Each structure stands twice: as structure tokens, then as C-alpha cells.
Amino acid sequence: MASTTQPRRKVRERREDVRNRVLRAATEMMADGTPYTELPVQRIAERADVARSTFYLHFPDKGRLLIALAEQAVEALFGEAVSWWRADHSGGEEGVAHAMRQMIAAYREHRRVLDALGEVAGYDPDVAAFWRDRMRRFDEVVRDRLDAERRAGTVDPAMHVPPTAQVLIWMVERTIAGHCHHDEGPGDEQIARTLARAIWLTVYGAPPSPPVRP
Q1: Which of 99, 62, 97, 85 is nearest to 137 (CA)?
Q2: Angular region, 89: left φ>0, alpha ψ -120 to 50, beta rest
Q3: CA–CA distance from 151 to each of 4, 23, 65, 159, 164 (Å)?
Q4: Cα(138)–Cα(146) distance, integer angstroms
Q5: Alpha helix (H) ranges present in the chain?
Q6: Which of 29, 72, 165, 200 could form a disulfide linkage to 142, CB 3.0–4.6 angstroms apart?
């Protein structure tokens, strides 16, 4: 048994090594300023020191490579927000602001991959399916929390949960993406706090009382 297990382990380790080298090569090339869509497979393979045929053994096409790169980026982008939606919200609006700061930082760190994800999803069905699935998972987290809050009577009972979840998710993702593409305008902290207030008031806020007339 040991004689067959060891060779299998070595084969698995070699495969993981090649895969990691390709991912690292693509990441480094994008960090140098080359857009993902302009990276030829041959150049990625050369940078990773693997044959082109070996590249295709691990990644059938560049779309599958992008999905592998995007796994970590998307997890970093949504991870803190998911944690906030599942928390007790005792931190109030400041808790949301913390999650927004983390999302902005994650987008800046993984911007090149996330930019490529948005672009390639427009024409690659596999990449589009990956992005829709990750957004759907986040949507389920938000919906579950809003449903629970409505059952507990802590939010407006008239809230229509599905569109509310969808609006909140896309508001946050699109705002952060747009913000990180422009150096001018509000700073990260202002955007984080503005998003936090918009989310908190949408979920828990009540309209202001009408002014008292003399």
C-alpha cells in the first residue's frame, strides 16, 4: 500500500506545483501592468517555466485560469461582508463600516483580477457562470438574514426581501468597483461610511418624523 501511495502523492504534488506556478506567473504579469485579456498563453507558460501543452493539462483555456485566480479574489471581496451579515449587529452602523473598509481594501488588492472577471464574464459563459454563482451565494446570505430579521419583527414587515437584497448587493459591489477606478472624489473612508449608512438605514432605519409645525 505504501509503495503505491507515495508515487501518487508525488504526482499530486507535482500537479499542484505546476498549477501554483502558472497562477503565480499570471498574477505577476498582471502586476507588471499587462491586462489579463492581453496575456497570451504561451507567455504565461514561459514565465511559469512549463510547456504550453502542460498549461492546457491544468487549464483547458484562459477562462478556467481566470476562474482559478478569481476564487481567492472573490472570497476576499465578500468574506468580511458575509461575516457582518451573519453577526449579531450589536456594533451598529460602525460594524457595517468596518466590513465596507475591508471590501474596499480587498478590491484594491485584487483589482486586476476582479477587473478581468467583470470584462471576461461579458463573453465567456464559464466565467459568467462562476461570477453569477458567487453573487448568488452572497445574495442567499443577505436574504436569509433579512428574512430572519423580518420574522423577528426587527425590520419593516412590509420589506420585500429579494429585491432589497439584490439592490444592497449590487449597490455595494458597483460602488466599490467604480470608486476604486477613480483617484479623484471621496476617499475610502467616506465611501465606506456612506455605504454603511445606506445599508443600515435600508435594513433598520425608519423615515424621519415630519417636522412639527408651530
Answers
A1: 85
A2: left
A3: 56, 45, 43, 11, 16
A4: 13
A5: 2-31, 41-48, 52-58, 62-86, 92-109, 111-120, 125-152, 161-180, 188-203
A6: 165
Residue carrying C-alpha cell 420585500:
160
pLDDT (tens digit per residue) in 49-104? 999 999 999 999 999 999 999 999 999 999 999 999 999 999 999 999 999 999 99
- Torsion angle in degrees (nearest 10) through CA of 85, 200, 195, 89: -40
Question: pLDDT digit string (tens) for 113-150?
Answer: 999 999 999 999 999 999 999 999 999 999 999 999 99
The reported pTM is 0.86
In residues, how long is the chain? 214
